[in-house]
Amino acid sequence: MKIGIIGLGLMGGSLGKTLKKLGGHEVYGYDISETTMLKADMLGAINGELNEETAKDIDMLIVSLYPSAFLSSIERFLPLLKSGAIVTDFCGIKRQTMQDMRELSKKYPHLIFIGGHPMAGREFSGIDRSVSTLFDKASMILTNVNADIFVLEQVKNFYLSLGFAEVVITSPEYHDRAIAFTSQLCHIVSNAFIKNEIASEHFGYSAGSYKDLTRVARLNPEMWAELMMMNKDNLSLELDELIGNLVKYSEALKSGDKAELKKLLSEGNERKLLIDARKK
Amino acid sequence: MKIGIIGLGLMGGSLGKTLKKLGGHEVYGYDISETTMLKADMLGAINGELNEETAKDIDMLIVSLYPSAFLSSIERFLPLLKSGAIVTDFCGIKRQTMQDMRELSKKYPHLIFIGGHPMAGREFSGIDRSVSTLFDKASMILTNVNADIFVLEQVKNFYLSLGFAEVVITSPEYHDRAIAFTSQLCHIVSNAFIKNEIASEHFGYSAGSYKDLTRVARLNPEMWAELMMMNKDNLSLELDELIGNLVKYSEALKSGDKAELKKLLSEGNERKLLIDARKK
C-alpha cells in the first residue's frame, strides 16, 4: 500500500520504520519540523515527502498528532486524496477526533474515515526514540465512522501485519471512558507518586514495584495535558474514585485498625485474582 | 557454611534453593507446616531439618517469617547455637525486629545479630512459588546490632554470592521510612487502583503502564497488613502526601485549568528525570 503519515514523532516515526522493515509499502511522511523530516529520511522511516504530488496516490493517510492539531493538519491533503482512500489517526482520545471525522465525512463522502488508537508508547518522545518494534504485541483500538465491514477487515489485517496482537473495534465514548482508567490515571498516579519528598533521597536500593510504578512519571507534559483535559469528565471521575479508596487505607492505618487494613488489602487482592482469571 | 533457615515460604524456600544451587553450603530448614517441610525436602531446598541436633553446628541462622513471629520462632534455637554464630532475619520492617535483636544480644552476648531485608519478592507466596533466581540483581539491606566490621564484610560477601547486586547497611529507622515509600506505598496504590469500578470490565486491551501499575495488587493480605501496621507512622505520612498531590490533579481537571495540569505534569516529569540522572 501507499501510506501517508502526518506527524513523524515517536508514533509516526515508529510506524514509518515498521512499514519500511515489513516491506511492500511506500511511505510518504510530513512533519512541520524540517529537522524531523530530514531525520525521518535519514533513518529510513519514509520513502519521501507527503506533498501535493504524492498525496494523490495514497491508499491510507494516518495522522499521528495531538488531537487539537488533527483538523488543521489534514485539510491541506483531503481534497487531493483519491476516492476510497482511508483516513485515520493515532490520537489517544477518540471523542474529539471522531466528531471532526464525522464532519469531514460529510464534506468528503468519497473518503473513508476510521479513528485509531495504538495502545503502545514509550516514556520518551520524538523520532529519535522511534523504533520498528513499538507495536509488537500491542492492542490497536478502532472507532469507525463510515467504513463498511470489508474495509474494516482490511484495516484490521493491516494493523495485525504491523505486529499488533489484537485489533478491537469500539465506540469513541467507551474508548475514552476505558482509557481514562487504563492509561491516563496510571500516568497521573506515577507522576504524582514521584513527588513525595522522600523520592529525592538516594536510597541505594529499590524494589521492582517502585520501578514499575514510577516508570511513566516521565511523560510529555504538553501532550498529556491536552489528552487528559479533553477527557476530564471521565478522568476526574476515575481519579476521585481512586482517591476515595486510598483515603480508606489511610484511615485504617491512622486508627491502627489492622483488621480493616487486612480487609481492604484482601478486597484488592481478590479483585486482581478475579480480573486476571477472566483474561485467561 | 552451615545455614539454618526458619520459615520456608517464598523467601526462605528461595534462599534454600539458591544455596543448594550455589553449592558449598549445608542447609537445614524448619517450618511450622509439615507439608512445607516435606516440599522443601522434595524440592531440594534443604539438606535436612533444623532441630536440636543440627542447630549446634549452624554458622548462620536466618529467620524468614512475619516480624510478629520472629521472637517466638527463634527462642528454641538460640541456646543451642555455637559462639560467634550469626543470627539474622528477612523481615520487611526493621525497627521491631531490631528491638527484639537488641534484647536478645544482651541475653546471648556470644551470638552476632544483624537485621536483613532482601528487596526481592514476587506477587505470589509459599514454597511452591520459590525460585533460585529470586535474589538475582536485587538489593539487600542490613541493619547491624552487634557485628564488627569483619563479620559485616563476611555477611555482605555472603549475600553478594547469592546473586544480590548490592548490600546496603543502614539504620532501622531510615530503612522503615524509605520502605514505606518505595515498597509499601506502591502496594497500597496498586491494590487500591484495581478497585475502581471499571476495572472489572473486560477491555480486550491494555497498555504497559496499566499492567505495571496493577501487578502488585496481588499480595498476601495477612503479611502486608502486619508489615504496614508496624510502620503505620511512616506509611500514613507517605500515603497522605500522595493523596494531597493527587487532589491537585483532580482540582486542575475539574476546573478545566489546562495550564495548571501541564504544570503539575511537568513538575513530576522533571523530578523523575532528575532522580534517574542521579542514579547513573
Number of helices of chain A: 10
- The helix-and-strand class of chain A reads alpha/beta
List the quaternary state of the chains. homodimer
Largest interface: A-B, 90 and 90 residues
Give the SSE order of chain A as H and E letters.
Answer: EHEHEEHEHEEHEHHHHH
* Beta-strand residue percentage of chain A: 5-15%
- For the record, the count of structural domains of chain A works out to 2
**Helical percent range of chain A?**
40-55%
CATH topology heading of the largest domain in chain A? Rossmann fold
Query: CATH superfamily assignment of the largest domain in chain A?
Result: NAD(P)-binding Rossmann-like Domain
Would you identify the CATH architecture of the largest domain in chain A?
3-Layer(aba) Sandwich
